[in-house]
Design brief:
This protein is an alpha+beta fold. It contains seven helices and 14 strands.
């Protein structure tokens, strides 16, 4: 094989999309490919109980070859949720399950993968104390929780404890507690993708304090502080491009405005067609291909890709939060 060649090989068991194949004595290291996070999910279940194992194996194989497709089990509902980059992506996955793996499935309505974020900082002292006879549990932390610095993803953890007020072996437990708490935000239980936490001070008990106590204290601090940090809901915004004959421009732009779309450019092609570029919330785009076909008598085409997350308007956020039925408890 030389540069530009395409090769087929059989018999590999542990290869994944993005791996590089090379000789052991002549290793080749290439940059890792960055794949976007899925933005839409649907619940699936096999139509017959005997297909349950087949479905699990099939979804595992599809997830191996496509890094933008993920499978997870919702522990609260017991549902299997598959997520991808859009409606068409998931339609193709469902079709492949039927054709290639012979698994017929029932599917639930698409769900948007919202996220949560905070917009201000808050400092609090969290004391976790439990006495049940014998050795108890004790942890005391003072933390400042704020939005992560620009461009930072995940937990931005800063340890500013001085003088050994919290022993060093307990600091990783505090970090772990905040990391696990970020999986479920305080508004509707959606993930918090970025957060800055500074541990300022605290105290411990020489007998009752242990790693679990400090981890639980961190989780409780997250639950109690985030509602005071003005949390907001974030929704995926898609970059949409529509190519249409001039006659249907008005109807298509009007429809995008109704979908909370933001028109960013209008161009013309060499053959006289018009191109409309817009940012549109994914939650407003379900079934858009069918609507576009109707508006343009089947003559317009569209392409849509994920672009970024943006804050959901307050009135819609309230609806989404109420619909989720999520309640925060210290026991989580």
């Amino acid at each position: 094989m030389e540069a530009g060649d395409i090769c087929a090989a059989v018999g590999f068991k542990d290869l994944r999309t993005g791996d590089t194949v090379c000789l052991e004595d002549k290793p080749i290291t290439l940059e890792t490919m960055e794949f976007p996070d899925p933005v839409i999910g649907i619940a699936v279940e096999p139509k017959t109980q005997k297909d349950l194992d087949k479905l699990g194996i099939a979804l595992g194989k599809l997830a191996e070859e496509d890094p933008t497709f993920t499978v997870k089990s919702d522990h609260e509902t017991g549902q299997t949720v598959i997520s991808g980059m859009g409606e068409l992506h998931l339609d193709i996955i469902v079709d492949r399950l039927r054709r290639e793996f012979g698994v017929d499935i029932n599917q639930g309505a698409p769900q948007v993968n919202y996220k949560e974020s905070i917009t201000s900082s808050y400092q609090l002292r969290e004391v976790f104390k439990k006495q049940t006879g014998g050795r108890g549990k004790f942890a005391d932390i003072i933390v400042n929780i704020s939005p992560a610095d620009e461009g930072v993803q995940g937990l931005q953890f800063i340890n500013s404890v001085k003088g050994g007020n919290i022993p060093k072996e307990f600091i990783p437990s505090i970090e772990k507690g905040f990391q696990s708490a970020m999986a479920n935000g305080v508004l509707a239980g959606y993930e918090v993708p970025a957060l800055k936490v500074e541990v300022i001070d605290g105290s411990y008990h020489p007998v009752d304090s242990d790693q679990l106590s400090f981890e639980l204290a961190a989780r409780m601090a997250f639950r109690h502080a985030c509602p005071k940090c003005h949390p907001v809901l974030l929704e995926p915004i898609m970059s949409l491009e529509v190519v249409t004959p001039e006659d249907y421009m008005g109807d298509i732009v009007g429809d995008l405005n109704r979908r909370r779309g933001q028109i960013v450019a209008m161009d013309s092609t060499a053959n006289g067609a018009r191109i409309v570029k817009a940012y549109v919330p994914l939650g407003e785009q379900f079934g858009y291909v069918t609507v576009l076909r109707t508006l343009s008598s089947g003559r317009a085409t569209s392409t849509m890709t994920f672009d970024h997350y943006a804050e959901v308007p307050a009135n819609l956020a309230k609806e989404i939060i109420e619909k989720s039925g999520y309640r925060v408890s210290d026991d989580e």
